[in-house]
Write a structure and sequence with these properties.
single chain; about 150 residues; alpha/beta; five-stranded parallel β-sheet
Amino acid sequence: MNQQIVDVVVRHPKERLSKCSLTPLQGRKDLQFFRANPGFSFDATGYLLLDLDAPVISKTDGSLPILLLDSTWKLLPTLMNCIAGSPVRRSLPRNLETAYPRKSKIEPDPMGGLASVEALFAARMLMGRGTSELLDDYYWKGSFLDRNNFLKNS
C-alpha cells in the first residue's frame, strides 16, 4: 500500500495569511500547517528542509516529506530557531524565477527566492512527486510556469 507523504508548513506568527500564497491550500490531506507561536518547536529529523546553500533537490529525495518555512526573509532566522533535529537540507535550482511581485522596502530578497507556493510546487516537481492543483488558485501561475518553462511538464 502506498502511503501518502504529508508535507509540513511552519509559519512565522507574523506571516500575513491574507497575502500568503499557501492559504488556498489549507485543508489538503497532503499538507499540515503549524504556526510557530512562542514556545513552538518542530523536530525536522527525516524532513527535507529547503535551504539556499544546500545541494540541489533531486528525484532521489522523493521519499522525504518537505518542511517548508513560511516567512519573510527578514523573519526567517527567528523561525529557524524553532526547528530542532537533523533535516536533510536541499536547495532549489538557482535559475528559478518568481512571478510574485515583491515590494520589500527594507532589504532585497536573495536570488532564487520564491513565493512559498512556488517553492512547494518546484520542490515536489523536482522530487518526482505530485503537484496536482497546487497552483490552481495562485494568481501568478501562468507567469511562474512561463518563466520556468521546464516546470510545465509536471
